[in-house]
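Subject: sequence -> structure tokens, single chain

Hey, anyone have a minute? Need the predicted structure for the following. Not urgent.
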Amino acid sequence: MNTIYIELRPIASRHVPTTPALFDNTKLRRSHMPTPGAYRLLLALVATATVSSSHGAVIASQPADIAVGWVQVFNDRLGYGRFFAGAGTDRLRVSASVVPSPDTDFYDQSSNGDETAIFLTHPSTPALNAPLQFVGLQSGGGGVKNEYTTSFNLANPSVQSQLAAWDATPFALRIENASAPGGETTKWVTAPDYDSSVNLPFLQDVAITGGGLAPTLSWTVPDTTAPITNIRIQLRRIEAEEPGRITAATLVHQAVLPLGSSGYALDQAFSNGGLPGLPSGLEQGRKYEVAVILESVEPGLIKGRARTFFEFTPLADDAGNKTIYLPSVDSAGNFNFDIEVKAGETILIDPVVAVGYDYQIGSGDPLFASVTLPNVGDGIFELWLYDLNIADFVFETLLDAGQRFDFGGGGVDRFRVLGIEPSAGLDPTDVQAFVTEIGFVGSGRFTGRMTPITANFTPVPEPSSLALLIVAALALGGTRRSCCRRPPLR
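Reply:
Had a minute. Here:
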């Protein structure tokens, strides 16, 4: 006889104290936090095929004792990204696997997991009483089963003032659960030693090669003094987004890579492809976020981690075997690159745009030598150059798609492209909507960024700039685009 037991009960809401000067509650998205008054559906499936009705019994949920599986304290470097909170910062992270938890309530028939509360303390910082947030499987927060976490932004001056003491003496965790049946409703655990010196690098030269649904990702791992003991890759399908952030994403594939890996081919079955509703491989028209994770691990303990995030959309099958360099997208909508460049050579980069975008090199980068634009919309664009005298962009010329423009004069550090019709329908969050070829006057690294100009960018034309535009249009014959086109955007 098979019996199914279903229990409905509210998630308790409780107030937890924080330490505002040190605790950065932006570490997690709002979606990671339980909603007070919400109901969790607990399904406990009990197979009793050989038990008679006179002996059959429902296995009810029971309270569980507090137990700690593991605790990790490490440097967690998050590259630019739009999904994980705290992206673009270096953080000290404390994570722990603790039961009971909402996961054990759901999977293991405990009844008091929602009552577990965990607080981080330190003997040198009496005011520190930072709560760890549940990010386990039932939270949607991206953690593993029974995981709780908190983190501190290392750029916070209040945190910086405490780092030496935190490095010298371990943290302690106070774990509370009023319904723990063994009488130990509060448990103290000493955390592992924190090593502030283990800082791993972000990837460079991130690129995608090939069209269709089996492209290859590639990257360069910079030299580092910290040992790299693990390389992992995670691929998330972007499900929903709003300006500045991805609001929902599904983990469709993950893999552990051999040490020294500098690339990964997406021509294999996805690890989560066997789960209901998840694909076995890439899908055309879908957007993805990739995380490549470098870790420094001692036996059983993470000491440092660096996560590089980038986004892409599969190219069409006929895109050829081009290599396109991919940006990391930050919450302000900028596209950030870190690419090796050589004098006289060009590279393909793929920012997102709506009606235009600005290009600018990073500090110390070689200057731009040339630009070639793709065939999008009507294939005619406006090129604007920066004038230091007026601290603004001024119109330079019209460019046809595929026409290489050499800046001359030793190169430029920034330029603007306008004239992409809104009717072209370029998604301002699709990092493979507008492939641009750029050249540089010297060799080095391109660490610059691109800022999209969206359709609500207000046109304020200078009379002289408009006159230049008309002259340029007439010089080109004026047959494809008349002088009566809309005023240029600034």
